[in-house]
Design a protein that fits this description.
Elements lengths: L17 H14 L4 H18 L16 E4 L10 E4 H10 L11
Antiparallel strand pairs: 1-2
Length: 108
C-alpha cells in the first residue's frame, strides 16, 4: 500500500488521504460557487437524505419498473419530502423526456 503525498497511508483506490482530499475539495468548491438554483436543489437533496437516513423517508422500489435499486427523483425541489423512487435507467429516461439532463451542479 502506498502513501499520500502528505505521508499518510492510503485506503481504497485513492491518490490522496481523506484529509488531503477534503482540503482539495474545499478549495475547488470555493472557486466554483453554486447558482441559486443549484443551492436550492442541493438543499432539497440534503434534506431528503437526512430524512431517509433517520428512517422517516422509506426507500421504495422503482415506480416505473419495480427494481429494488431505486433513487430519489424530485419533481418539485420546493417539496423535498415528495419524491418519486426510480432506478437509474428510469431516472435518466425521465430527465430525457423532460428535455433536460440532471443538473449535477458545479461538479460537471
Amino acid at each position: 500500500m502506498s502513501n499520500c503525498p502528505c505521508g499518510a497511508p492510503l485506503t481504497a483506490k485513492r491518490r490522496t488521504c481523506q484529509k488531503c482530499h477534503a482540503a482539495y475539495m474545499r478549495k475547488w468548491r470555493a472557486r466554483r460557487p453554486m447558482t441559486e438554483e443549484q443551492k436550492t436543489k442541493d438543499r432539497c437533496r440534503s434534506y431528503a437524505g437526512v430524512y431517509k437516513r433517520r428512517g422517516k423517508l422509506i426507500q421504495e422500489p422503482c415506480f416505473k419498473c419495480g427494481s429494488e435499486e431505486s433513487q430519489m427523483h424530485h419533481p418539485d425541489y420546493t417539496k423535498p419530502l415528495e419524491v418519486v423512487w426510480l432506478c437509474r435507467p428510469c431516472h435518466l429516461k425521465t430527465h430525457a423526456q423532460e428535455g433536460k439532463t440532471p443538473d449535477l451542479g458545479p461538479w460537471t
